[in-house]
Amino acid sequence: MATAHAPASAAGPGTGGPLAALRGRPALGKLLLLLAVAAVAVPLVHARWGGGAWPGALTADLSAPLGEVNDWIVSNRDSHPLFVYFLGHVSNAVVLSVRGVYLALLALGWAGVTAVAALVAWRTAGVRLAVTAGACFVVCGLLGMWVPTMQTLALMVVAVLASVVLGILLGLAAGLSDRTFRFLRPVLDTMQVLPAFAYLLPVVLVFGIGVPGAVLATVVYAAPPMARLTALGLRGADAGVMEAVTSLGATGRQRLLTARLPLARKELLLGLNQTIMMALSMAVIASVIGAGGLGDRVYQALSSVDVGAALAAGIPIVLLAVVLDRTTEAAGRKAGTEPTGRAALRGARGWALAAVLAAAVAVVGRLGGGRVWPEGGVVPVAGPVNTAKDWMVDHLYTGIPVIGGTADWAAHFTSWILNPLRGGLQGLPWWSVLLIVAALAWTIGTWRTALTAVLAMAAIGVLGVWEPSMDTLSQVVAAVAVTLVLGFAVAVGAARSERLERGLRPVLDVFQTMPQFVYLIPVVALFGVGRAPAAAAAVVYALPAVVRITTQGLRGVDPAAMECARSLGATPGQQLRQVQLPLARPALLLAVNQGVVLVLAVVIIGGLVGSGALGYDVVFGLAQGDLATGLVAGAAIVCLGLMLDRVTQPTARRSRKES
Amino acid sequence: MSESTAPAPARTTSGSAAPVFSVRGLWKVFGPRAERVPGSEYAGLPPAELREATGCTAAVRDVSFDVAKGEVFVVMGLSGSGKSTLVRCLTRLVEPTSGTLTIDGEDVLAMDRGRLRELRRHRAAMVFQHFGLLPHRTVLDNVAYGLEIQGLGKAARRAKAAELVEKVGLAGLENRRPAQLSGGQQQRVGLARALAVDPSVLLFDEPFSALDPLIRREMQDEVVRLHREEGRTMVFITHDLSEALRLGTRIALMRDGGIVQLGTPEEIVGSPADDYVREFVRDVPREQVLTVATAMRPPTAGDGETGPALRPDATVSEAIEAVVRSQQPTARVMDDGRLLGVVDHACLLDVVAGTGAHGVSV
Ligand SMILES: Nc1ncnc2c1ncn2[C@@H]1O[C@H](COP(=O)(O)OP(=O)(O)O)[C@@H](O)[C@H]1O
Ligand SMILES: [Mg+2]
Asked: Which of A15, A110, A225, A645 could bond to A274 as cystine, CB 3.0-4.6 Å?
């Protein structure tokens, strides 16, 4: 496996005296120290507990106590004051507001909703996006997905509003108080690297399956970016401006409202954008716990491998994502710049005109048509798509001369890469896995990140899910390796060719906005179900981020250094190897980190399409009402996410964020 | 502000009126347990040793001065000498460590939050090196900001702001945002914002250091004009000697947090207090700063009849011009028809060459 070589290769030949070599290469020193510790500890540990998988003596069986907690909650849901007076009200409020928004959307009628979307896009982002937004909703109707789209939208509206309020409150607290910031920041940072699936089970435990749980899971998942960016924006306010404001005698409140918040407008809007995108992503995934809407349609279709139906529900999700992202992004770009466009349409007047137009369209639409898209106006796509898929199954899956078929590829990937990797990881002595994790995390990061990573890994063992976790880990490692090879290759090309980069940019933009869930549809169509399709979905999901970060890193290399290399007569290959790659090291490490985090998220979701392991345990727990199994798997996912993030967390990322 | 319209007394060293700011034994120490430094055995240590011993930096050390009504009090020194810290102490944007500080006789350090806000809102307004404008507001709303903070209605504050935008020469740019203005224009906005609240003292912290030389000159003229027209008291921080000499009624020269010399431009240039100041003013064209009152010698018999008459505050370069024009050997220094002294070629050349020992006593 790739990772096992790293410690050995990092400890390359030293020059000069041994101490000088250590001082010049701190990584070497760390490894030697680790080696010394291992030399003492490993024989003892091995003698006591043996090698192989995590020793049974060191596990704690949590399923019994968790089962009890679950039973207690189930039996007290209607009687305990905590539920009756607090959680019950929360749950009711959520149900009522989602229902209210949903009815309001229906009352507006399909014409009205489409008009509102188009006009909002027009005011914030211009005519082109207005057309896209309008078309998006029309397509939703044409695909026969009007009602699920409205359900998803209603859930989104409530979840996003709650996330924004919660995020801004947390962000204000962290932005104005150093102590809160120091406490909240690592929590928020960590929450952002955890796979969405990990949030589902605790919520289900408390709220049960249904809309309240789905909304709350979405809020918990989507609020951190808002909180984080609010805090960073407030803290980043220009000190000179703040001092000037104070010098004029502004009160604390005035400073906040007239200076600090407006100065953070860009960050606030970026936070809104990220929150909306994450809320959409989660609202779709939360179909597993009863969110309904588009995600549910995809989920149901995937369970019966009905690619046509999945596609019909997936397209609206993608369109919604693109429109929401572009609109909020345009709002963020425009913040603080001079108003443009015709004077008659600026500011409040433009919005008033938009509101009047929308109202007019809504009234006309309701008089002429119904609340939902007319039955007759639906273009059936599921049938033709499934026909095409069947044709694919017959002609592309297998038996194509020379290149084989997609199913063959998947089978080969599974038997040649995934299986040996899984076998290898599960066969490694448990203590050696801990050592490898420590070595990787410590050489790339600090002793703190290494300690967290090792503890997280050990926690997985203690939870008693070592085997499935190694299975998941093997899928992650394989998918990350493929992602990095492809991503770095594309990025090197894009960094060199302006044309390629320009062509790639819109593709990356669209791919980066799509919710994770959607990626499962095409891979199931192409490769069927199993571990290989899940890995493929993970690769496709993580690739855009890796390509983008790497390209930016390579392009951001100091032009003076490149010019110097060129003037010395370096070939393009030498320039790349000796100047660009070393100087872009921080970006490359960040790309690896992002790649790992994103791959893990999708590999876990892959449990829905037969990738087994931890993701399947969660799905199984949810489906069977066996929350104990699901919760343990969820905790293991959290630990795995923590471990993978810390192992790949460069010191540079920490220190740069600190500044 | 009825008194602010009175014309400024050109170069008063000490007015008979009470001082605007009165500062005595002021300290500002940054660092851990800063309050132990003033008055202790550490107080006399040079900066490096102080940091070594305590981990503290004494940005302002034992500073005392008065700012008279209507004067331009310039604080000058190299970067890091504590000028910005000192001027921020005046309105407690930086909290002084020890010492006393009064404005119009009122103890600033004893003020509670509300009173301090009143001070900042109405009595002292500041202009900053990096402008400190609000990027999301138009020029007009930036200028009106101080009035908005005070709770003035929208129409009233906009009217007042429009007046000031006009006054600083930005008419027509009211609806621009700061990012669309040049540096000089942005600082005019900063100036207008400070003037809008009609403060009794204007504080400037290196307001023109970030500007191109030509623009800087223009802005200095603007300040001179403002001072001449309104006679507003100003505390002006700068690291630029020529700016200090151009604008200052009196100049305090700072080094390592302390004031090494405090006096009129003429005193600073004519009789530097120590080698540091001497080195500082070495390249100043002395004939443009020193007056004939400094350069003259007592009249001897027969001196009183001929030669052009000069006022005592005429500069030496003016005297040279007069002497050369009149083709007389000497010029007379006259005050109210009384002969104070005479300047001859030797006196004047001494000043230019910097060889004469001109102890200035005013
Ligand atoms: N907030 C602060 N914390 C610690 N030291 C400071 C702080 N502000 C200023 N100093 C130190 O005080 C000294 C004087 O700074 P300053 O007043 O800004 O000088 P000037 O404006 O003359 O350049 C410098 O040595 C500076 O490093
Ligand atoms: Mg300064």
From this structure: A225
